[in-house]
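Forwarding the complex inputs:
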Amino acid sequence: MSAEDICLDQLSLADLEKLQQKVLARKAELELSSGTTNKISPSASEQIQKVVVIGGEGQLGQFFCRLFNESGCDVTSLEKQDWADAEQILKSANLVLVAVPIHVTESIINRLTMLSADCVLADITSIKTIPVETMLKVHPGPVVGLHPMFGPGVESISGQTVVVCQARMAAHSSWLIELLNSYGAKLVKVTAAEHDQTMAFVQVLRHFSTVVYGCHLAEESVDIEQVLSMSSPIYRLELAMVGRLFAQSSDLYTEIIFANPQNVGMMKRYIERYTRLLSLVETNDKKRFKREFATTRHWFGKYAEQFLDESSKLLSQARLTRSSEDNKSDQVKESNND
Amino acid sequence: MSAEDICLDQLSLADLEKLQQKVLARKAELELSSGTTNKISPSASEQIQKVVVIGGEGQLGQFFCRLFNESGCDVTSLEKQDWADAEQILKSANLVLVAVPIHVTESIINRLTMLSADCVLADITSIKTIPVETMLKVHPGPVVGLHPMFGPGVESISGQTVVVCQARMAAHSSWLIELLNSYGAKLVKVTAAEHDQTMAFVQVLRHFSTVVYGCHLAEESVDIEQVLSMSSPIYRLELAMVGRLFAQSSDLYTEIIFANPQNVGMMKRYIERYTRLLSLVETNDKKRFKREFATTRHWFGKYAEQFLDESSKLLSQARLTRSSEDNKSDQVKESNND
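Prediction (whole assembly, two chains):
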């Protein structure tokens, strides 16, 4: 059977909605299984690896403990209360993965002076220069910095991006990289400096601007319900992106924003540009404003059209999802009126 | 047949992808037809209305000409070259809809001194206070300001929001409102002042911040490809939202941003808040930063969780769509290697 054989003409809107959910669920199922069929990498399965995850009871720590467990490793979690036995727990490990909150990463790494010479030392912190430098200083053996670009809520690592910063004796950690690869993770190999430079935009500036935007709305006493009732799908989505940040813990966002003081300069340049462009609005200089627009459009190049296309598809999905939800709530309202 | 009867177990990922597209297309088809089945409103069909759309050959003008045509009105478009005959074209109209670019709206309205006393004068400009005030001044009859919250690219007005600012003799424009309603538009009735206050955030601040963010990326010489390769789905989407603006004409965005000089003050307060929060980062004052976060979280209230939920659903759809596109391009790469 193929997609062409299925005829949809008889289905109602509600049934089409159900079918869409079924298709999405089935796709996720297939993608999940195709990502895990070959999950034990050849080299990892040859001999059982002993893995210690420091902070393995944290949310992302648990995720990696499960992953290593499933692939046949012998996994131990090392928590705050276990440091008395740390020497014994750590010394025979093939991999020590540091999965602790970002603000204690450096001090935890500094305690790892007892690893065996060929033990791989790795971390999963959102910044890379400082943790990688600290690992290289403390441990004379193989070192690799990782940054999983996803939260603990994802169902599988398949299709998710993991940034890999190889720092010393890469051959020793090749089994770990192969293992992530065999699970379907997308691996991006860069230096720690390149990582931090990119993250200044991907994480720090975006998170920070979003926090400011939320504070601004609150302090301007904006009426959310009114705004939503008058929003196009695109603005509704943008507002949802702001609100979703505030539904989560402030700790992680604060730590990411504060982790690298070097970013303050870049964020000050953002204000300068904002001020420069706003003065064009204030002096009604449309001509220069459009020139700035054109320069940036040129910089985006082929990506401008590609992004327009990509976001339009998603927005039309958002509109369809919303409108079927609105219909549902309309029905509820009507039945309440009975 | 219902959605439950369709079994998906035999379908490949590629077939599921095709089916998903078919379902979306069929849903859009059904929604379109359900929006137009009852398209002629009772009062509009009783007698043929004579409608003049000024700027009816513009993109959104064409959209409204089609809509009025389909509902049985007698529609004339009045363009630049037709002003010599304007007196005759306009004097017997029941509705004159101003659909010209925002920066000429006011001057065009000022020419409409010859309408008959019961002719409805309406506009579709993105700002409302100035056009509505000008219409009230020029025309002694019924006046209503409209703001369609969608672009000319949408397939149907069904499910789209239209802001309605009633200004004088609302009973005379009730047939127009009923007509929009019968097409499935979501009508939001507010005053012109309320509209402009909300749009300061929904349109002006968001568009302006997006322009600045794009300029900032360009001037910081960010490597888009590297950023994309290291982006989580959420950041990819946010970047796409920036790029999509630059794929479009700068005229409309410039006019919207420049239309209401009152917004400059509000945008300056945004800079003040940005600077205040950035100084907390510079002085490493995490405690006060988290307090600001908590205050804003409290302001979002129930919407924080709702937005998290809503955007998460959309992001997981975005991830699935992307990953099937990535698979396609991987296949292309492989076949090129042969």
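Chain A touches chain B through 130 residues (CB under 8 Å).
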